[in-house]
Give the backbone structure.
Amino acid sequence: MKIRLGVVALLVLGLFITGLVGIFRFVENERERELQVWQTRLTIIADTRTQAIEGWISGQIASVTKLAQNAALQLYMTQMIASAGSGIAVSPGVEAQADYLRNLLVVVAHRSGFSKSPQGPEVGANVRRVGVAGIALTTRDGKVVVSTPGMPPVDGSLLSFLKEAKPAETAIRDLRLDAAGKPSMVFATPIFAVQGRGAPSDQIGWAIGVKQVSDELYPLLRQPGAIWKSAEALIVQNNDGLIRYLSPTRVGDAPLARSFAIDTPALAAKFAIEKPGGFAVRRDYRGNDVLVSGRMVGKMPWTVLYKIDREEALGDSDTRLNRLVIILCLGLIGVSAAILAVWRHGASLRSAQAAEKAEQMANRYEAQSKFLKLITDTQPTSMFIVDGDNRYKFANKIASDSTGISEDDLIGKSLASVLGPADAIRYEQINKKVLQTGEAQIDVHRTGSNGDLRIWQAEHIPVSTELDATPGVMVVEEDISSVVNERERRERTLEQLSDTLVAILDRRDPYASNHSARVAATAEALASEMGLEDSVVATARTAGRLMNIGKIVVPEEMLTRAGSLGDDEVRLVRGGLLKSAELLKGVEFDGPVVAVLQQVQRRWGDCNPDTRDTDDVLILAQIVAVANAFVALISQRSWRAEIDMDEAAAQMMADADTVFVRRVLSALLNLVDNRDLREELTIESNVERH
């Protein structure tokens, strides 16, 4: 007893240690989950702020580019630069052009935010006020042609920026403090000569936009709806080993006023620059631990970082998890003590309960098995289940009676030993495929011969391992002989009806004696060429065969008369053709034959096509119409001679997309050019004649 108690104590100790490890792992996973939630939040906000800044930059470039692409501006710039280079005195026309361009620049600058009053007091003395924003048009070497009032002078660093810009490409000067001590940016776009192709040799000057960006750029860093006190978005940049903060900070630092060495340990800005799109816990410019994520800004060497103090983000979570650790540890200690206290009593009690539960489960399983057997035995179909080795695991009464073996003796036997190897192989091959794919399969096969021919449909269904310990296949087999025989009888009746109607029609119109058969063959060939399903192809053949049945109501003398018909007679013949669907609407076909003929009637009669029909009906109507028209053209009539197949196809292609669908005509051309349609129609004609 002492040895057993010692073993139990060791087990409880192991359980305690395992539980302790599990508690700390659980808590750690919770912390990781909380970090993932914040990672998602910060990356989304960093993405939206970055997109806002990129959109703003693109907008500034677009404003200047649109100005540079103004045709009048390009023309006037070309003339003014040419006039200045000729050394001729400035003419009134050039002055008018300059005034026009200056007014244009003022309007664009005001609309696009490139205007700001010059800095400094306005005095009567000859003292130049400092310009901080504006738009200017310059020559390629930076000489100002015209500019807005308040435009900074194009000299010094601004002139150097233009000279270093690549010809025929847009250039952006990075953030820097202007003469007024405010963050400023410059956007330059090349101006090309009129009808220039955008090559460097076509460039005649620059359109330059200068603006102070604090009022437009930095507000984009604020996330709408953010409620966190310590959250902050910043624009940072790696400038030759020095990380510069280009935007203002929450502690009051002005733009471009704060910087850190690139090797500053655990710096959040360094992480954001080096790993854009990443997420980590680092220290910000104040030395506080923060959660940070960053994104690179397109077109500029900037990184947008978004951060929040770790204390604000995870403080409540840390407090909750620490409390949870204490509670779980106390609970684990209590559970371990309880296990030791009730071990002896619990062992016997569990054994009794386990035995009772096992008996209940056995009784329940037996009751369920009997209930399943009762249900399956009342079914009119054979049902049995085999395992992966094709051995019987279950069979209902009909299945066992068909083998001549009792239900109990059948379990465990292989299909080959019960049905014979020849019959069993059919089931085994399908069962193997079902077990491999996990999808049900349906097989139709025939047994017997002559008067005892039977047709069977077997559905092989995978048995999930959730229902049984081992995988298997359930086979449900049903005798469908009567259904198939009835369908085949009906198909023979319809075929005989079609033959009879076509024979009557052919005897009334000797010039079109083979027309229906050739239309049917052509429609069938077109449907097959277009890759339609077998059932649709069969419908096309039947509809083509019966399309002209309506001619039965047309007087025979009109069908055989040589020469052309009068207008009333033509209408009578056409009206007869449009009667085919009406004559056949009471006949039940396997496919939508009547619907196809009705669609042909609407298209070639006085009505518009019914767009409510299915796609199969609409395309079949076009197929039958094309086949009928084609056969009519290549066949002799009482009033005209036939024409060659190539010529007939060419005539019909002229009506592509107007009378006929191009897809069907393309299939017809392919049949005429690459398939032996001539031989196929000849064979069909001979078969019909005999």
Summary: Residues 61 and 187 are 6 Å apart (CA to CA). The domain at 379-479 is CATH 3.30.450.20 (Beta-Lactamase). The first strand starts at residue 134 and ends at 139.
